[in-house]
Amino acid sequence: MGSKWLEFATFVFTGGFLLNWVWEVAQLPLYAGYQRVAWYLDFLHCLPATLLDALFITGLYFTGRAGWRDAHWPEKLNPLRCLALALAGFGVAVKAEKLALGLGWWRYAGKMPMIPLLEVGLSPVTQLTLLSPLTFVLAGKFATVGKEGHEELD
User: Fold this and answer.
1) What's this model's pTM, rounded to 2 decimal places?
2) Is 107 helix (H, G, I), strand (E, B) or coil?
């Protein structure tokens, strides 16, 4: 089929979406003004942020593919590559939180743990820091592309 890399990227997007949606909904009480109403309203409320998180993580696949010149790089995850994914998630999360807070898109509730000096919430920064590499670890375990008996990513 020749587009197995697209299948893998779709798997990364889907996994990234699901992991981030669970985290987004779980951390809702840490934001000012949140009141639990219904699960589908929580889903709709978290949808824009979750989509951006999943797109960012999917973008990491394409960045790695270009930077390492290897469509198969997720199959070769090692501690250094996981650290690179975590650092990318950390950096983007800090910048995104500072932007959103500065523009008044959201505010933290008093129970949001803060990162000293950075003045951003610990939960949203930890989210992308951990879920970026975790998405690729899970994609490598569960995706069928590139496995024995299946077509390669190229």
Assistant:
1) 0.87
2) coil
